Amino acid sequence: MASSPGYEQVYRGRPTNSRSFDENLSNNYYERDIIIRPLDVTNLPPNLPNDNSSEDNDIAIKKSIGIGCGLASLITQNLLIHPFIVLRRQCQVNPNATTYHLVPITLIPVIIRLHHTQGLNTLWKGIGSVLIVRGLALMVDDFISKITPWPNISIGIVAPFYSASLVETVQSEIASERPGILDVFRDGGIRLLEVGSKGRIIPIYALLVPHITYGIVKYLFGLVVKGVATRFMIVRDRNLQEKQGAYNKEIISESTMQDIELHSTLISMCAAEVLFYPLETVVHRLHLQGTRTIIDNLDTGRSVTPLLTSYSGAYDCYKTIITNEGTLGLYKGFGSLVMQFGIHFLVLKATKYVLTEIGTMLRPKPKIIKPSTSMPIQPIYYDEA
To answer: Is residue 250 classed as helix, strand or coil in its secondary structure?
Structure first.
């Protein structure tokens, strides 16, 4: 407005000389750079809560949940599902059974009758010997792994003790003497020393080929399924993170890996058990042939029946089952396997839910910090130099 006649030149509400105004403006703004220096800030709000501590708490809680689920899976695998293993084996080795129990619903009335006639301990028989054989296998694997690179070689070494443990898990308690907890070593040693043919019993060295083949093939198949399942779940987790935002392609949280490891292990176990169920039936019948074992009759749940078979080998056993019992005869007791993994899955889900709820209750609530009234926040000015 300085060029218009009749108007005073005003700067910040005060009359000024046009010449001095232009020079000052030029000196202050056009002949050198503008430097804005913040003044020292003395009045700041109190320290804000540290986000790193809350993140550390979340990581610790998720890690604890993973450890708890792993422990629950271990207990379920070795203890809680043992009754279903007993039912499955009794169905598998009975060639005269007319009820195949391919679905879980047919086993429920049988379980009730067994409890009424033999008590609550009838489905827990042989659990001591099963745990001993598993522990022995782990010890042998650990020792052999330090000498040779061969994995899972204990399958053949513990075969005599596995055979003795199998007898304890299927024999009826009302028609047989209850074995001691260490009898598995005595019976396994006797089975190992029985080199010659004694009646219809198959020597342990003749059982090694089908027994080791079943164990190794099942083990290798489980490794492949576990690797594929792990890879699939890692890719799925990354895709979910992509939809939610950026993520680090190289790092996966420890809690996520624990969850993936747990689920992939369960999937591999389930797939291996289902695929090799017929081969397990054949191997179990060969182990029990000639042992004079009397088992519970699971057609009724109130009587017992002896095992009388005369197979010459694995192929003869397979062919005889197909001829006399049909193809489904290889899957006798499959309903018990379904119940076994159903219980395992439910235990894992329930454990994870309970631990997650406990972790939510234990997680510290974020503190809302209000500014102090005694130290009001002053506006911040900038010095134009």
So the answer is: coil
